[in-house]
Amino acid sequence: MQKGILRWGLFAALCIIWGSSFILMKWGMFDEHQQPVLSPFHVAALRMLSSGVVMLPFLYSSLKGIPAKTVRYILLSGWMGSFFPAFLFCIAETKIDGALTGSLNSLTPLFVIITGTLFFGMRTGSKKIAGVVVGLAGSALLIYLNITKPQGYISYTGFVVFATLLYGFNVNMVHNKLAGVSSVQIATIAFTGLIPPALIVLFATGYFNQPLSEHKFIMSTLASSILGIVGTAFASVLFYVLVKRAGGLFASLVTYGVPFVAIIWGVYYGENVTILQIVALCIILAGVYLANRSDRKK
Question: Residue 290 pairs with which residues in a beta bridge?
Fold first, then answer.
């Protein structure tokens, strides 16, 4: 009974944390009057910096016994699975709604299958292919429903799709190249390895020249830091604990909860979320379910 409560508690916590990350990006970039404060580069770099700093105390123990070649793959995983997607998501959210971003993020499992098939020799059956087709059709419908938005709105969804493509590729790379390394070690080395480039971006984009003592800059910096500490570092550890206690199959169900939390935040933030958009999201998730159905049976 207690194990079941713990599993569902971790599951709910991850859905809330990851589902809330999209609104935290908005709070990092805009004030309560929707006026720009920090740039998407500032928010993404602060996210990476804070996640790296909070994992820094665990770096020494995480590096013990890991070959240099493996460390290189972990660092590459940090760039592909965290650094570039963080910037792509923030750039996208300068134009598109957080609810739409969260919904499109659910394409990640489909890109795991696509990139796994194309680059890593993953076996793909008819159910996986059908699931990918259904999921992509749902995403196309979701984008089409937003076609009447202001100029440039739809084009920025491409940043989100590309980020989920990188997520998919990274998952396969970790599975194939880092199977013997714990998730905590991967997260620690990957995130701490992103501290130098994050600082370079902050200096290069003039973050430290901003009036950081002003209230709106303090709040935006705080939102960006929470995004990194809680939404990236802490959530990665929670996910690792969930996988260990409940298995990868149960942990993968987080994919279904995250976009709905993002939609709830979007409604709270005043974004226009329609029933048809939720239907399109459900089609994407149906594709994800269908594509992974054979694996679930195994």
Answer: none
143 and 154 Cβ atoms separated by less than 8 Å: yes
CA 160/CA 188 separation, integer angstroms: 25
Structure tokens at 255: 């994919």
- Would the pLDDT of 297 be above 60? no
| Torsion over CA: 148, 19, 138, 154 (sign) | positive
Look at residue 34 and give its three-state secondary structure. Answer: coil
Give the DSSP letter of residue 146.
T
Q: For residue 158, which of 150, 166, 270 has the smallest C-alpha distance?
A: 166
Residue 80, amino acid: M
Answer for the pair 54, 237: CB distance below 8 angstroms, yes or no: no
Distance CA 175, CA 113 (A): 12
> Shortest CA distance to 188 belongs to which of 65, 75, 86?
75
Assign 1 a pLDDT band (cuts: 50, 70, 90).
Answer: low
**Reported pTM:** 0.93
Report the chain's C-alpha Rg in angstroms.
19
CA dihedral in degrees (199, 201, 206, 212; nearest 10)?
-50
Q: Tens digits of per-residue pLDDT, 11-67? A: 999 999 999 999 999 999 999 889 999 999 999 999 999 999 999 999 999 999 899
User: Can you say whether the dihedral through the CA atoms of 204, 206, 207, 208 is positive or negative?
Assistant: positive
H helix runs in 207-274, sequence order:
215-228, 235-246, 248-252, 254-268
Please provide the size of the chain in residues.
298
User: Nearest-5° angle of CA 161, CA 164, CA 169?
Assistant: 125
Residue 36, classed as helix, strand or coil, is: strand
Distance CA 253, CA 128 (A): 17
